[in-house]
Each structure stands twice: as C-alpha cells, then as structure tokens.
Amino acid sequence: MSVRVRFAPSPTGFMHVGNARTALFNYLFARHHGGDFVLRIEDTDTERHSEEAVKVIYEALRWMGLDWDEGPDKGGPYGPYRQSERLDIYREFIEKLKEKGLVYECYCTQQELDQMRKEQLERGEPPRYTGKCRHLTEEEKARLRAEGRKPVLRFKVPEDRVIRFKDLVKGEIEINSRQLGGDFVIVRSNGMPVYNFVVVVDDALMKITHVIRGEDHISNTPKQILLYEALGFETPQFAHLPMILGPDRSKLSKRHGSTSVKEFREKGYLPEAFTNFLALLGWYPKDGKEILSLEELIERFDIKDVNSAPAVFDTTKLNWMNQVYIRSYPIDKLTELVIPYLEKAGFDLSAFDRKWLERVVEVSREYFTVLSDAPHYMEVFLKDDFEVEEDAKGFISENPDRLRVIELFYGKLKAFEGELTEEAFKKLVKEVGKELGVKGKNLFMPIRIGLTGKMSGVELPVLAELLGKERVLRRLENSLSKLRG
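Below the sequence we write its predicted structure tokens.
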C-alpha cells in the first residue's frame, strides 16, 4: 500500500509552529516511505478565510523546504483541493446518510441547548445532546420551520458502542460512544457542513492512508471513525502528535514570544535550522545526532519513535542550532540573506563591493545568533562616522599617553606606503609600542577606540585590513577630533 498523507490547514492568517511541525512530520513520513504529501486548504470558514492567508501557508511551507505532490496550486487526481470547491461532493454524501436514516434535522435553538447543558451540569451529568429532535414528526418539523427555525443536521451516535483504534504515537485508545456528547452536528443551519464530516469525506476520497495531526484532535477521531463506517469508507491509520509547551510547561502561546513561522523568519532564523529544530520537538533520532539536513531527517524519521509526552519549545536550543547553521552556511547565500537586515537598519551598501561585503559577513557571523543581529555586529565595518562611547572616553582621559598612542599610530599610518594588510597593521602597532614604551592594554585599547569608538569588538588586524588605509585614517581623524575636545 502506497503511503498518502495530507496537511490540511485552515487559512486564518498565520502558520503557528504547531501547524508547521504537523506539516513537517507528515512530509518526513511521506518521503521516508516514498509516498505522497498532499496539501489541502480547509476554507469553509468563510468569515475567517482570506487569500492572503493561503499565500502565508504556501510561503511558510516553501521556506521550510517542504514541497507537496498535490494541492490547490498543483492539482492532482483527487481534486479539487480546497474544501470551498467541494461542496457538491459533500452534499452527495449527506444524501447517502439521509437515505440510510443515520441523520436527522434538529431544530433546537442555542438558548434551548444552553438550558439543556445547564440542567445537566446542575445534576452532575456530563453535557450531551439528549436526542430531543430524533423522532420529530413531519407536522412538528413544519411547525418549527413556520416559526422561522433553521435546522442543523445531526448524526445518530450508536448507544453504548466502544470505539477502538490503534494510534501510532499514543498506542491503543478506546472511547465509549456515551462520551461523545450525544448526536453531533454534521451540517450547520446555514447549510455548511462541519469539520468532522468534510474531513472524513476528503481523506477517504483522496485515498489518505495515515492521518498525522495534533493530539487535540483525539476527541474528534471516534466521531470520524463512526462516519467512515457509516459512509462505507476504509478507516485510515491515526497518529496524534504531542502538544508543544512553552518553557514554563504551559501550552505554547504568544506570551512565550514568537509562535508563527513568519515571526521566526523575520527575526532571521535560517529555514534549515528552524526545520531541524521542529523535527526534534517530540521526535529524536536513534543515533543521537541533532544537526540534520532535511535529507537526513527523511532517512531517519520513524513515526513510531515520536514521543507521546509533550514537547518543550526551548528557544535557547533553537538559538544554538541557528548559530551552528549560520557558521557553516555558504557565505554567498548568507550575505544575500543578511543584506535586507542591513538595508532596513539604514546602511547604504551601494558603496561596498559584494566580495568585500562577503568577507565582512565571514568574519562577523560567529557573533550572530539570528540574522537580525547583523547590523549590530557589522556596523563597525560599515560606518566610519561614529560616536566615541563614554567609557572609552574615560579610558583615554585617565592617561595622556593613551591619546599619544592614537596620534602616533595615525602619523605612522599616514606615512606608510603600500597595502594595509593584517601583518602591516601589526608591524605599525608594534613600532608605536616600542617608541612610546607601552604594551598590552595601554597599546591596543587606544587604537581600538580610535578605530571603533568602543572598548571591545572584532580583531583589530582583521578590521584594519578590511577597512583599508584611507578609511582607517578617516576613522582616526574622527575619533581624535572628539577625544581632543
């Protein structure tokens, strides 16, 4: 049997990390088994749906490196792949349930349902629909319609039936039909079929063999199994993924920080690092290796190794992983990704050669946690007109010889002929130290302050070579004018 899985998000504005992990695990499972990964858009919620939100889903999946075999934009043998375009298909199967006598019209108002629930809770009973409308006569239905009531369609839940299924993550699960809350709605009063019904029809007709989704759907599974059976469909295998928790072990939410793929992308997490990290939320490779390419994840992934316990979203680990990827990323690609952050920070890059910029990224990237750190750490290479920090001013004013170090170095550099390499820079600094009889902090710190206005930063010989003689001289002139004043 060929494996077929699907990712079926609702287009509501953003892709949450929980949805992203679900998509990833479906993708890894399909590719590991040489099967198909289907994208289906569940857009029957017309109030919340937007085409922009569909675009967000496409962009998030592609950014993560996930490609689908069938979907709204690609087509396929079991389309259409948008629920809003499948309404005629749903009506056909609703009619089949009516013909079998497995559904009925319910005219109860929301007020009546609320009162029913209230009375049950007061008696200490679990809330459930009583089946009040199961046996309405045609005359009673006509009278209720005359009152302006629009019915929902409810599915008849069999009494005292034990529904069992083997979950590939959670193991054997059984639920008594009495726990399902009574006969459940499959079509709303506006004629729109609900999730539990349409997902069964879609998965069956699209030949989905494995339904891999979040554990919050476990309560839906028994209802869906009843519908599979009622419609004569083969039931797929289920795998319910563990919940993702924040560091405080509560459900991951906005108060824990970023929760959407877009936010992580905008902060400057590399897609390879983000995808690698998500794969380890609830699953861990048997060989213990953590830095894994998408191809390696596909090779190692086994749904049976997914942990049933909740997974904790550890931002510290994500940051570490992102740093690992940044330090090994192809420098031309990394520079391409860094440029928008530099431009957004106001740097005019038109004056800089691309190869030179790549060299700057190369020596700066070890300090990056995310790409949005680039402007802070690269500023020292890009901005010649800077302010001298107060602690640096204080350091220079403590000892007159420290200002003399900058002045002498400036004079020697001005007289120097040739290219300012790392070796040439070191030689000039050594000469200054010898002439003034200074070394260590009293020699190197004043020159650092003269070049950057700061007390710490990148290695000076590297900085000097990348800046070149003319820019180093301009910087020294800039800082000397501020320190002398």
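The mean pLDDT is 95.
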